[in-house]
Design brief:
With 450 residues, the protein is α+β, with helices and mostly antiparallel strands. It is built from 17 helices and 18 strands. The protein has four domains: 156 residues, NADH-ubiquinone oxidoreductase 51kDa subunit (Rossmann fold, 3-Layer(aba) Sandwich), CATH 3.40.50; 74 residues, Roll (Ubiquitin-like (UB roll)); 100 residues, no CATH class; 62 residues, OB fold (Dihydrolipoamide Acetyltransferase, E2P) (Beta Barrel). A five-stranded mixed sheet has the order 7-6-10-8-9. The chain has a four-stranded parallel sheet with strand order 3-2-1-5, with helices on both faces. Strands 12-18-17-14 form a four-stranded antiparallel sheet, with no helix packed on it. Strand 17 and strand 18 form a beta hairpin. Helix 1 crosses helix 7 and helix 13 crosses helix 16. Bound molecules: iron/sulfur cluster (SF4) (2 copies). The site of one iron/sulfur cluster (SF4) has 14 residues, from helix 11 and helix 13.
Length: 450
């Protein structure tokens, strides 16, 4: 069988299982792996403070993760496979090195504990010494970066199991943080109900994702999806929560208060990598009405990592939010991400200017909550699930079930038409379809409460 045929055979179950990048925007994995690269990097950096999914999967499901990595490596035809984790996880790194020594595979890379080392572009530079062109993809320098849970899901797909659940960490202002496997479509409130003490909605806010790049959840009935990696509970007056709540005000202040100290640019990881992104110049453009030309277009290079607003700016301003706004303006005007030429080396400030996670945690006032979030038993099937039809990059999946249909755990309930970008969706419990909309399929366990 030729490489193309082998690749097709490997990716068919990945596509059928509805796998998407579990750690990011949800790019369909069968599309990502339908490429040719010379290196594949398993991203176990988990650089968001408090989250522990990667660490728990590497500790308790290493065989599955390695099976997924082997398959992904073969799919892209990579000569080298790397598994990157932070050096601070000493027992885990030791275990990985022992396993890798027995197999002479993969190469274990221990990473410094800096933020955002898990950013694909930063990771490619750290592991391979290559710089992804600004606005480009790792594939342009011969690399594929893949999330740990995605690799686990590939192994499960090869065993015939579609994606019906997601690993996530519940952390922050809870007595006993934990990591668990939750059926997709479970309400966030039902998962938080397992946290002790139960957070009171009037006193606490919940962030989906990590403290640096996550967003506030406004309705605890919101379902978890294939890409939910964390639920972080914080007091409503916590600096991160107030920062997320005051985005409009921050934007207005940006027009007048910025002192042009350049700290946001000095500490911007993408800037240090050599990309033509100068957040302070974008701020200056805002003060003058709106950034223009190349400065405006450079907003597309912002990864929204949050170093500038959560760490660098002592005026409490948010170049990240300004970049987001500028991107929205440009997209509305039909202007997309420009292409930039490749770069040979990072700026002199790299790696000296990188931000240690320990300092970030202190600055974000998270240190009091830093403690392990061990893996608990999987959550039991809830009485009902609301399964979104778009949990991925691409088009919305089309329902293939109707109200009243019985479904099993793992039944496909929505699919993407041939040739379009997207991912299939499966039932996460056994039950009866109780409603179908153009956004959500609701399934009740055993038809309860129909
Ligand atoms: S760090 Fe703050 S004050 Fe300084 S240039 Fe950036 S946005 Fe302006
Ligand atoms: S969020 Fe700020 S620090 Fe991060 S890439 Fe964007 S401009 Fe740079």
């Amino acid at each position: 069988m030729g490489r193309k045929q082998r690749q097709k055979a490997l990716l068919a179950p990945v596509q059928a299982a509805g796998i998407v990048g579990a750690g990011g925007a949800g790019f369909p994995t069968h599309v990502k792996l339908a490429s040719k690269a010379d290196a594949i990097i398993a991203n176990g950096a988990e650089c968001e403070p408090l989250l522990e999914v990667d660490g728990q999967l590497l500790t308790y499901h290493l065989e599955d993760v390695l099976t997924g990595l082997e398959a992904a490596q073969e799919a892209v035809g990579a000569e080298c496979a790397y598994l990157a984790v932070k050096a601070k996880h000493k027992p885990l790194v030791e275990k990985l090195r022992q396993v890798a020594a027995i197999r002479s595979w993969p190469k274990i890379i221990s990473l410094p504990d800096v933020y955002p080392i898990g950013d694909e572009q930063i990771l490619v530079h750290e592991v391979l010494g290559r710089i992804v062109p600004p606005g480009g993809l790792p594939l342009q320098v011969g690399a594929v970066v893949i999330n740990i849970e995605t690799l686990y899901n590939i192994a499960r797909a090869l065993a015939g199991e579609p994606v019906t659940a997601t690993y996530l960490t519940v952390h922050g202002a809870v007595a006993e943080p934990f990591t668990t496997l939750a059926p997709i479509g479970t309400a966030v409130g039902d998962i938080l109900a397992l946290a002790r003490p139960l957070p009171a909605p009037d006193d606490f806010a919940v962030i989906e994702g990590g403290p640096m790049m996550g967003h506030l959840i406004h309705d605890l009935r919101q379902p978890v999806t294939k890409t939910t990696k964390g639920l972080v509970v914080l007091p409503k007056d916590h600096i991160i929560v107030t920062g997320l709540q005051s985005q409009g005000a921050n934007l207005r202040r940006a027009y007048s208060v910025c002192s042009q100290c350049t700290k946001c640019t000095d500490l911007c990881p993408r800037h240090m990598l050599g990309h033509p992104l100068w957040p302070h110049r974008i701020m200056r453009g805002m003060a003058q009405g709106r950034p223009q030309g190349e400065i405006a277009l450079s907003a597309f290079l912002c990864s929204e990592c949050g170093i500038c607003d959560n760490y660098a700016c002592f005026m409490g301003l948010s170049p990240r939010q300004v970049n987001r706004r500028v991107k929205a303006w440009l997209l509305a005007e039909g202007l997309g991400k420009p292409s930039f030429t490749g770069l040979d080396q990072a700026r002199d400030s790299w790696p000296r200017g990188r931000v240690p996670t320990s300092r970030l945690v202190y600055r974000l006032d998270l240190a009091r909550w830093v403690k392990p979030a061990p893996l608990r038993d999987s959550l039991p099937a809830p009485t009902s699930v609301e399964i979104p039809l778009k949990q991925h990059v691409g088009v919305t999946a089309q329902p293939i079930v109707r109200v009243g249909d019985p479904v099993s755990l793992g039944s496909m309930v929505a699919q993407v038409p041939d040739g379009l970008l997207g991912a299939a969706v499966h039932s996460s419990i056994e039950g009866i379809v109780s409603s179908v909309s153009d956004r959500i399929i609701t399934i009740r366990r055993g038809g309860e409460g129909g």
